[in-house]
Hints:
Elements: E1 6-15, E2 22-26, E3 39-44, E4 47-59, E5 62-67, H1 73-79, E6 83-87, E7 108-111, E8 117-125, E9 132-136, E10 142-146, E11 153-156, E12 161-164, H2 170-196
Parallel strand pairs: 7-12
Antiparallel strand pairs: 1-2, 1-6, 2-5, 3-4, 4-5, 7-8, 8-9, 9-10, 11-12
Amino acid sequence: xxxxxxxxxxxxxxxxxxxxxxxxxxxxxxxxxxxxxxxxxxxxxxxxxxxxxxxxxxxxxxxxxxxxxxxxxxxxxxxxxxxxxxxxxxxxxxxxxxxxxxxxxxxxxxxxxxxxxxxxxxxxxxxxxxxxxxxxxxxxxxxxxxxxxxxxxxxxxxxxxxxxxxxxxxxxxxxxxxxxxxxxxxxxxxxxxxxxx
Length: 197
């Protein structure tokens, strides 16, 4: 199992008991879809290794997990700080208008108002008050599209497309200089044409 076939569920934070139990933090909005896990995939020496889940129970905002073949506190300490992965097919379905940040890399961003594709999504920056799409607008011009809660997003997985309500003037901020450069080039070309005629 490779990481590109998986998604990051969370992290083992620390041992829970001398019997080898560990504390699992799930980096998901709704953990209820993952309460019946049978296997966790944990990196060991550069590969993902499956660990069978014997027991999983809530503990405050985290979970206590007993894994097969992890029976001592020393073994549990060896897993502390490790990321936990699951196969993509185990990813919980999302409601309309929602998407997993990792899945939209390489998708096309479309302006709802014009219906035009504006660029290719490089990745999602999840810092600050709300996430932002980093987008390649073409010719190496990178920029950001903010995604506050009130912005409507249509997720079209079949077409690998996000249709967005772009803030007014956003494209001008990132593409304005390129358009001005194009206009200057056009004027220079016109001058050359007038000189020839």
